[in-house]
Amino acid sequence: MVRSFKRFAQGVMRAGLMMLVGLTSLPVLATQAEVRQIMLGESVSISLSGAELFSDYAQLDLSPIQRHFHIDDTAQTSQRIRLRLTPLQAGRVDIPRIQAGNLVIPAQSYEVRDNPQVRIEWDAVPASMWQGQTITQRVKLVLSNPDLPASMGAREISDTNNAPHQHYSAQPISQTLAETKSMAFVHVTQLPLDENLSATHTAHTAQTIQRVSLPQPWVQVQNQQGGRWLFYAPPRQVELQPLPHYLPADLAVGQFELTIERPFWHRLGELHYQTLRITGHQANRLPLIVDWLDTSNPSLERLQVQRQTETALTEAGLVLQQTLTQPYRLNKIKQINQPGCCGFCLGQFAEIRLNVFEPETGKLNTLVIPAQTYWLLPAWVYQIGWGLLILLSALMLWGLFKLGRVAGLWLRLHWQLHRAQTPQQQWQAYQNWAQQRGLGVCQTHQAWLNAYQAKFGDNPKLINKLNQINQAIYQR
Questions:
Q1: Which of 165, 245, 377, 458 is the most buried (most CB within 10 A)?
Q2: Is 305:325 a contact under the CB 8 Å cutoff?
């Protein structure tokens, strides 16, 4: 009995040892996904572990998964890498077996269902863009439950010379509320400026095309269970076209608007301001604007220009705007005076021209502000003008005062007539009004009427009223 038990124990040990040897010769397998049925916005995890984990993972071709899922591999330890897979769209997804060295992700299938509470749509992006442009990724989100909060996020990009920069709206650019809540978010990528890219292109060789991968922003929706749903933008690449070789590599690219505000009338020696404003759409940066006032005019004194730059995100994309305020004086009138102008001077500001690259036409475009005429006046002209303005204002105030006094006397007359209880009191009210209007002391009704007609003309209604008062007084 004891011998039989020993033989049995030895057999078990031999079998265990053989199984252990067999297992060490097999490749390291990754554990399969936790779930097979998932909903759009949810995530699944794949856990990777084993010897030579990081070297094998660096050689692992994840493109079959990346076509259908966004992969987040930031959860790593010294012994394990956890992949969080978030589906990009609904439908059936079949992932083939993927292997690198001893690391294996087995074949698996997922059924991704639509999210009944969220409808999301990412707008298409152009297939190619010019170097120095910006590219906009817009997304429209509709929530069946208006109480669910949503926001946009994006992974930070390392700040290098050729890395694209990004701007995005964490909160909705626009929002409408009804039975559902509709929102729009915007993510803008500033395409890099690579001088070497333009240098490699000449008139005799084909254009060098560089492909740039766009960042994958996401929209996060907080659900009623306290969790979150993530909706990633699909992986996208655009062709980055270099500028033509005959143009400088740092030329501003985009759609630009150039406007200016400058006075027409100038006073000799007084400080004036010109405001130049440039606005750029789909532009990586604004063109550099240097001194635009005529530097050859010796009578023109320019002070330090003030620059203010603003950046705004709209549904159309990134809008850059720079406002330049130039203070200046015109100090000498004789050097630009014309014979016979009696100290008045008619001058002209020079034309302003700015070269930019128009992406829609693929050609150089020149923004032009035409030359503008101005008047330069000596100080005594402004003094006379201000004096006339003050005199005219005083006359207007005097006229308004007189008009108000006449209206007040007329209202007082009607108030006294309304309160008068006898014809004699009514006649007394008319006499008081006549004295205040400068008609003098009128003892009789006829004298009152004669004075009134001499100053104001005929008034049949008033004549009839006074005749009635006169008859009422004498009838008594």
A1: 377
A2: yes
Tokens at residue 306, please? 């003030």
At the topology level, CATH places domain 118-195+207-241 in: Immunoglobulin-like (2.60.40)
What is residue 118's DSSP assignment? E
- Classified as helix, coil or strand, 260 is strand
Quote the pLDDT of residue 325. 94
- pLDDT the model gives residue 339: 46
Angle value at C-alpha 456, between 453 and 460, nearest 5 degrees: 60
Specify the pTM. 0.67
2-113, CATH topology level = Immunoglobulin-like (2.60.40)
131 burial (CB, 10 Å; 0-12 / 13-18 / 19+) is: buried
Q: Tell me how far apart the alpha carbons of residues 69 and 72 are, in angstroms, rounded to a whole number.
A: 10
Q: Which residue has the higher pLDDT, 438 or 41?
A: 41
Q: Of 43-57, 61-75, 182-196, 364-378, which gets the smallest average pLDDT?
A: 182-196
CATH 2.60.40 domain residues, the chain: 2-113, 118-195+207-241, 255-377
- The DSSP string of 333-357 is SSTT--TTSTT-EEEEEPPEEEEEE
Tokens linked to 94: 């079949």
Count the Cβ atoms, other than its own, within 10 Å of residue 380. Answer: 10
CATH class of 255-377: mainly beta
Q: pLDDT for 169-186, tens place per residue? A: 888 888 888 888 999 999
